[in-house]
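Following up on my earlier message about GLP. Here are the inputs again, as you asked, copied directly from the submission form:
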Amino acid sequence: MKIIKAKDYDDMSRKAANIISAQIIMKPSCVLGLATGSTPIGTYARLVEQYQQGDLDFSGVTTVNLDEYKGLNRENDQSYYYFMNDNLFSKVNIDLKKTFLPDGMEPDAKKACEDYNRVIAATGGVDLQLLGLGHNGHIGFNEPGEVFEAETHCVDLTESTIAANKRFFASEEEVPRQAYTMGIKTIMQAKKILLVVSGADKASIVKEAFYGAITPRVQASVLQLHKDVIIVADEAALSEVCL
Ligand code: GLP
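Thanks, got it. Here's what our run produced:
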């Protein structure tokens, strides 16, 4: 596990974007695993800039996103499809037919999950998986629990996740209670993992996840077992650990 210290959010975003652009330059037909949440927004903005400057070509890239809320359609501005379109897809020359997220509008959870597992398998495997980190240590929407779930599954969001995400919705009642998320085995199968984390409010979970015990109670702790993980964290997020 390699931890790269960034000065602040902007520096974190630039460093993370440079790692992703290096991946695209080295393998123009790469498969990127993508994440949502507020943390990667700056990373996507830097990638868009690099594209606008003529330094990046997304035409060969395939993307698979980590997760999607169950019950939100693509036009809903809180759906992760909308987020990806708004922050990246509509701003670069990616082929939309090669961008994938779980189908939040599929009410049959078993079908939605099996379909998404097939989509991921058909890509041939993720070259670089981008991750954020939830305050409770979740990655994607793999919430604290007794086990590490292998593949795509339907999760009941925890109260703390619903509370954390309510800032994006008009009211807490509107936050979906369930989501479809890629499983831990699938995330761990990515050849390379890049996790971005920023802010003092994430400092204690950074310490727990990456310097503590490996346990499904802190899902991100499993990343300690992956052979190629890069964590780009700002000084505030690293304030409880010594580097
Ligand atoms: C969300 C997403 C995660 C994200 C996390 C942290 O609920 N499902 O993929 O990493 O929470 O979000 P943020 O970056 O806004 O703190």
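One observation from looking it over: The chain has a mean pLDDT of 97. Hope that helps, and feel free to reply on this thread.
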